[in-house]
Design brief:
The protein is of the alpha/beta class. It has 37 helices and 23 strands.
């Protein structure tokens, strides 16, 4: 056994993989077979690829590579087949339980213990699995939980309850594993590594063994590395160990022994980038002074001073006062530039530009390293504008791919009982009915989309069928067309409704229903391509294990449960990525380097991320057990940053705000700024990001004023369109000449217009069918509310106001009848020719007064128009309806209008409901002259725009044009209120 362990370190300023390959080739001394006899243990599969690429870059004339084995691989025993030759099999290691089966079994235990739904049980089971793995990795017997809990008497009640449940599960879990003849994967890895270490103590391998880039301080790994460092041909190569850190700073990192007097131990600085390596060396029994620097470089290295500056920037907080005494060279991060952007969108654009610029140099490589998947996706999207597909190591979650979104859409549609939004999302999904049937299918789905606009129809497929079969209203033709297509699509959706009908489903049955529905709607297209094959593999695996999972799942929580399962699968495209551009997560970036390293998303909560909570073990319990603190992930993130900062050229970026609020710069960013006195900014990328999509010089446009030929102007107009014609002629032109009408939102909450139409329908039916019987109006309104699929909160707020207003109408009509006033007609349609134009309208109600004259009544769910508006020639709807009545435009209605009333259901003087007239009283307008006034204003408008040649100028009188339906079409923001805008042509008074 060598007197000194063979432990080396490669400093951050050197490219780890290239330096390792260079050193191993140099140690082989030209013997190509010596490398092939070697074994290199690395942390993960991505490191295998990085080191393989490094060997390939140095393989002039050919090269036989050593075996590269990732210790984090679930199949490590198969990868270590050479090391396990002649292994003693008298005590075979049981197989590991498959991860998905393990998750399902734990979820069922949690479901029984906690009484939660299946989706929450799955989430808690993932946290529980993580806790179990940590116990195995640290070789902590779960039975210690009872003793530790007994020693913490002041533990909060909710932690005690959680601990009791955890103890029950930990008692049951070994029995579950024993029944299946399996053990946990972390436990199996421990046993395997321990067996390898014992074998190598007595029979070292014939070739060399190198443990490269492994920093995990797990006891089993530390024991194996200790053994490797002490065999003749063994070496341990650590990444980024700080050999120059002063001894007092190194000792301050911990872990510390308890004070012999008080029994308390100082808290270790687990957030420091060197803590994990220090803990590993302690468990290996290696002193830092015994670690030698790796002599070889990789040819892609930064200046050595970079490592000293990085180490100084990461000093423990208690020692940062030493920055003041540093030499300028020891604090200068030469080659590292910073980029601070306004928001994530600008940050992604700037990073994409920097990556694209790197491609201009032949052979130059560039990589974005970030834990922010949103930023990574934005950068990928920006790169596609240049036809560049970056190699994104994380891929995309299966839930965000077309097959995944189709599965989620089916589950959401069934759970929401085919509410319009999830239903249309399903019917329009790009995988549904692909091929020759796609065009006809989309035509029908779009027709259904238009028919379902507005408030939600009744729930379920039958509810939609009844809604489309209703022939009342102005959309009867559209609904008929949608119904014809709907009857063809209905058979494909009915199995989904029947499968999701129960309040609780078995998980296997629910997943089988999803599979059948997917095949019915998309056929084999849902299971093809990388994402489709991943979905098929997941469902095949789930088919074998879901029987062991949560026993019951409701349709409502199937969506989050399914999304959690799909998120566990990452889909990576097999080919087509750019060979010189990479996007790496923090784990994937370890041991890798590029000519340009962009470290993105340096904001607190992103890099470093917030420590994940442990819902099972209190922080005090974790400390007493000897588990890593939750904050150790910050130290790992710091070590990853140190590795990235060692690149030849480095760009660090952050956004000053995130999607919701101002962002706080990462603690690492602030350290670098404080030590250096301010990181050097890059002079171009921010400006380029701002200018790449900046519009050209703004062009001043004139106010729209189309002037179609007289023959194309409408000759028929509704009384409700006169105000639009006068106040905003362009909007009238867009609606009546161009035939453009705004669409209601899908699944809209009942708004003022809908509520007004619904109230009108109730009052119309009450008058026509019930002869204004006061006892029948309230039941009709209650039936309306019962049939409305609005949000319960909205109904609860609207119902009292509506019913109070309905009661007021019933009382008022009864009182008017007693005074000799009789309702004559409801929803009366009338038309008359005025100034050569057919003027038509619908009177909500026409009453016969006691003296034989007529009263024109209009219902308003809000406040009625003001007398001022009437005096200025607007809001003349009642007067125009009276004009039509004067000219005999309403069938079976004769007489002269003498009263014009708005029956408002709004609140006034503390009560709901009041009558207001636009004429008489304080208005100064004589009711007898109202129709004459209305006729004069209408005649002037008709002669100006309808029978004349005046242009339809936009926003003539915006104070009477409150609706913005056509503002985008008229490009309002480009001319309204700006200097140089053309003054509008005055319309008629």
């Amino acid at each position: 056994m060598p007197p000194v362990p063979a432990v080396f370190t490669i400093p951050p300023h050197r490219a780890f993989a290239d330096a390792l390959a260079a050193g191993l080739i140099a140690r082989a001394r030209g013997d190509t077979t010596d490398l092939a006899r070697g074994l290199v243990l690395v942390p993960n599969n991505r490191a295998v690829r990085a080191i393989t690429d490094a060997f390939v870059r140095r393989s002039e004339g050919g090269l036989l590579l050593p075996r590269l084995v990732p210790v984090g691989d679930p199949d490590i025993d198969e990868r270590l087949f050479g090391a396990l030759e002649a292994m003693d099999d008298t005590d075979p290691i049981p197989p590991a339980i498959p991860p998905l089966e393990r998750l399902m079994l734990l979820a069922r235990l949690v479901e029984k213990q906690q009484g939660v739904d299946a989706a929450e049980a799955l989430r808690l089971a993932e946290d529980l699995a993580r806790t179990l793995d940590q116990l195995h990795v640290e070789k902590i017997d779960p039975v210690r939980l009872r003793d530790v809990a007994a020693g913490v008497p002041d533990l909060a009640h909710h932690w005690l309850a959680s601990l009791e449940r955890l103890e029950v599960i930990l008692d049951l879990w070994p029995r579950v594993l024993a029944q299946r003849g399996c053990i946990d994967l972390a436990d199996r890895r421990n046993r395997l590594l321990e067996r390898v270490a014992r074998k190598w103590r007595d029979a070292p391998p014939r070739g060399f063994v190198v443990a490269a880039g492994i920093t995990s301080p797990a006891p089993a790994i530390a024991a194996l590395l200790r053994r490797i460092s002490r065999i003749d041909a063994g070496m341990v190569v650590l990444p980024g160990l700080d050999t120059t850190m002063p001894a007092d700073e190194w000792d301050a990192l911990g872990p510390h022994e308890p004070d012999p007097v008080t029994g308390f131990a100082r808290r270790a600085i687990e957030t420091h980038p060197q803590f994990q390596i220090k803990l590993l060396l302690d468990r290996m029994g290696v002193n830092r002074t015994e670690v030698a620097r790796w002599r070889w470089g990789g040819g892609r290295d930064a200046p050595a001073v970079r490592s000293r500056a990085i180490a100084n920037a990461m000093k423990p907080a208690a020692f940062t006062a030493r920055w003041q005494g540093l030499k300028p060279a020891d604090r200068r991060l030469t080659g590292v530039r910073a980029l601070e952007l306004a928001d994530p969108a600008e940050e992604a654009q700037a990073i994409a530009i920097a990556l694209r610029e790197a491609l201009e140099t032949p052979g130059r490589t560039a990589a974005l390293v970030t834990p922010d998947r949103g930023l990574a996706r934005r950068v990928s999207a920006h790169l596609k504008r240049w036809g560049v597909e970056a190699d994104d190591s994380a891929g995309r979650p299966l839930s965000q791919t077309p097959p995944g979104t189709l599965l989620l859409s089916i589950a959401a549609a069934g759970a929401d009982r085919f509410a319009p939004v999830p239903l249309l999302a399903l019917l329009k999904h790009p995988l549904v009915m692909r091929g020759d049937r796609r065009a006809a299918w989309l035509d029908g789905a779009r027709t259904l989309d238009r028919a379902l606009r507005g408030p939600r129809p009744p729930a379920g497929l039958d509810g939609i069928t009844r809604f489309l079969s209703d022939r009342s209203g102005r959309d009867r033709d559209l609904r008929a067309a949608a119904l014809a297509w709907w009857r063809e699509a209905l058979p494909l959706l009915q199995p989904i409704e029947s499968d999701f009908a129960g309040e609780a489903l078995s998980l296997p049955a629910a997943l089988d229903a999803l599979r059948k529905a997917t095949e019915a709607l998309a056929g084999d297209d849902a299971w093809t391509g990388p994402a489709g094959r991943s979905a098929a593999d997941l469902f095949a695996e789930l088919q074998d294990v879901t029987a062991a999972g949560p026993e019951r799942v409701s349709a409502a929580n199937l969506v989050p449960l399914l999304e959690a399962l799909l998120d566990r699968v990452a889909v990576r495209p097999p080919y087509g990525q750019h060979p010189r551009l990479f996007i790496w997560g923090l784990i994937e970036a370890r041991l890798q380097s590029a000519d340009l390293m962009i470290l993105g998303g340096l904001n607190e909560g992103v890099w470093p991320a917030l420590p994940p909570p442990d819902p099972w073990l209190a922080p005090r319990i974790r400390t007493e057990l000897g588990l890593p603190s939750l904050e150790r992930v910050i130290g790992l993130a710091a070590h990853d940053l140190v590795g990235g900062l060692g690149g030849q050229e480095v760009l660090v970026t952050r956004a000053r705000r995130d999607a919701r609020s101002p962002a706080v710069a990462s603690r690492f960013w602030l350290r670098m700024e404080a030590m250096t006195g301010g990181l050097r900014r890059h002079p171009h990328y921010r400006r380029w990001a701002q200018r790449i999509d900046a519009p050209l010089a703004p062009v001043q446009i004139e106010r729209p004023a189309p002037s179609p030929p007289r023959a194309e102007r409408p000759r028929r107009i509704s009384v409700t369109e006169v105000d639009r014609l006068k106040a905003d002629p362009f909007a009238f032109y867009a609606r009546r000449v161009l035939g453009l009408s705004p669409l209601d939102p899908v699944d809209a909450d009942p708004g003022p217009a809908w509520r007004g139409n619904a109230v009108h329908a109730v009052l119309e039916a009450w008058m026509k069918e019930d002869d204004c019987d006061p006892t029948q109006l309230r039941p009709r309104a209650e039936q309306l509310l019962a049939d409305t699929a609005a949000h319960p909160l909205l109904k609860a707020l609207w119902e009292p106001r509506l019913l109070e207003a309905i009661d007021w109408i019933a009382e008022r009509v009864a009182a008017d009848r007693a005074a000799g006033r009789l309702p004559l007609k409801a929803e009366a349609r009338g038309e008359a020719e005025v100034a050569g134009i057919a003027l038509y309208g619908i009177a909500d109600r026409i009453d016969r007064l006691a003296d034989g004259s007529l009263a024109i009544v209009d219902y308003k769910t809000g406040n009625p128009p003001s007398s001022k508006a009437v005096g200025e020639g607007y809001s003349l709807q009642l007067g125009l309806l009276g004009l039509i009545a004067e000219r005999g435009g309403f069938a079976d209605v004769e007489g002269v209008p003498a009263a014009f009333e708005y029956w408002s259901l709004a609140k006034k003087a503390g009560s709901i409901g009041h009558v207001q007239s636009p004429v008489g009283g304080r208005s100064g307008l004589d009711p007898a002259d109202f129709t004459t006034l209305a006729a004069g204003h209408f005649t002037a408008a008709a002669e100006h725009w309808l029978t004349g040649n005046a242009p339809f100028t936009a926003k003539l009188h915006p104070e009477y044009a409150p609706y913005a339906d056509y503002d985008q079409l008229m490009r309002l923001e480009e001319w309204y209120g700006r200097e140089g805008a053309v003054a509008p042509e005055d319309g008629p008074a």
